[in-house]
């Protein structure tokens, strides 16, 4: 707990694996009285009326009806990142509370991560590292090969800010770009990256050498890629997921990777996170896994913090909220 005269902001904790970034605490305390979840739970009567904003970092603290009902002065929930599947927007709106996120801050590093995973899976970088560093390796096979990236066809599912930035990067590799989106991009935007809109998901899956998921998780997109969709992909194709784990039917993916329905996969997101240590995905050689670090750069995380501060201050001052999430 900090300066009592500053607006109260509820946070999961200060530092540690699940609290707000330690490097950001000092900056946040210039503007807010940070109240940890533990402090709040230990004395709801004292702290509840003082909290005017909830600062969500890494999906925490969780916001439910009980919490909303305990915060009579709450004006805004500011959530780091672009995904909103951890928030019940209709419930929050019913309490008259605004929501803001940080879509622009995460788009570049997440797009970088998408290309990194694509390249790593295509050229079998993780397998290659294990082979090169294994104590029993005596020689390298001339016929140990991966997939060509330059000139290949990339199908992007979800052509929002992140998907579009992936397309910009892929163009530098002379990739042919297909995409599927709720709304077709403007012609000039398509031409700028050489992207072709697919009228159906099936068409994109059948034509692509790499399929990259950069779409948000909604009831409509849950398990968007299942057994049927995987069967439509080329046997040489690689699936990349930088969206949410539940976009993919993981049981179907395991089967597809084990039986050669597709060549490989690279996932920055799974469900749950982390996977149980005995999950079959962890034992496959033709998969690359990273621990949901799409936006995890020092620069992006600082920008996210600054965006959240700006949104909270605007809300408390009655000004237009940058990056406000509007209920559709």
UniProtKB/TrEMBL annotation:
Residues 115-294 form the D-isomer specific 2-hydroxyacid dehydrogenase NAD-binding domain. GO terms for molecular function: glyoxylate reductase (NADPH) activity; hydroxypyruvate reductase [NAD(P)H] activity; NAD binding. Gene3D superfamilies: NAD(P)-binding Rossmann-like Domain. This is Glyoxylate reductase/hydroxypyruvate reductase. CDD domains: GDH (cd05301). The lineage of its organism: Eukaryota, Metazoa, Chordata, Craniata, Vertebrata. PROSITE patterns: D_2_HYDROXYACID_DH_3 (PS00671). Residues 45-325 form the D-isomer specific 2-hydroxyacid dehydrogenase catalytic domain. It comes from Ailuropoda melanoleuca (Giant panda).
């Amino acid at each position: 707990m900090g300066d009592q005269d500053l607006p109260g902001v509820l946070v999961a904790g200060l530092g540690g694996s699940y609290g707000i970034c330690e490097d950001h605490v000092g900056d946040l305390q210039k503007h807010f009285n940070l109240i940890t979840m533990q402090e709040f739970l230990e004395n709801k009567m004292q702290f509840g009326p003082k909290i005017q904003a909830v600062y969500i970092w890494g999906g925490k603290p969780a916001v439910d009806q009980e919490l909303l009902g305990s915060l009579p002065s709450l004006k805004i929930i500011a959530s780091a990142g672009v995904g909103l599947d951890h928030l019940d927007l209709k419930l929050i709106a019913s309490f008259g509370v605004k929501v803001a996120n940080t879509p622009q801050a995460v788009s570049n590093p997440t797009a970088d991560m998408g290309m990194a995973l694509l390249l790593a899976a295509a050229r079998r970088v993780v397998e290659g590292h294990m082979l090169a560093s294994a104590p029993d390796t005596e020689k390298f096979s001339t016929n140990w090969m991966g997939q060509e990236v330059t000139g290949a066809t990339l199908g992007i599912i979800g052509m929002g800010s992140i998907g579009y930035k992936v397309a910009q990067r892929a163009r530098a590799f002379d990739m042919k770009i297909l995409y599927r989106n709720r709304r077709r991009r403007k012609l000039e935007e398509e031409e700028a990256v050489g992207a072709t809109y697919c009228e159906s998901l099936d068409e994109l899956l059948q034509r692509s050498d790499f399929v990259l998921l950069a779409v948000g998780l909604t009831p409509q997109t849950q398990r968007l890629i299942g057994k049927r969709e995987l069967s439509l992909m080329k046997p040489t194709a690689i699936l990349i997921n930088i969206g949410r784990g539940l976009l993919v039917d993981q049981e179907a993916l395991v089967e597809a990777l084990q039986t050669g329905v597709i060549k490989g996969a690279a996932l920055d997101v799974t469900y749950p996170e982390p996977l149980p240590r005995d999950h079959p995905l962890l034992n496959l050689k033709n998969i690359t896994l990273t621990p949901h670090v799409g936006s995890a750069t020092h620069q992006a995380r600082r920008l996210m913090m600054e965006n959240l501060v700006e949104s909270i201050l605007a809300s408390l001052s009655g000004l237009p909220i940058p990056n406000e999430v509007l209920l559709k």
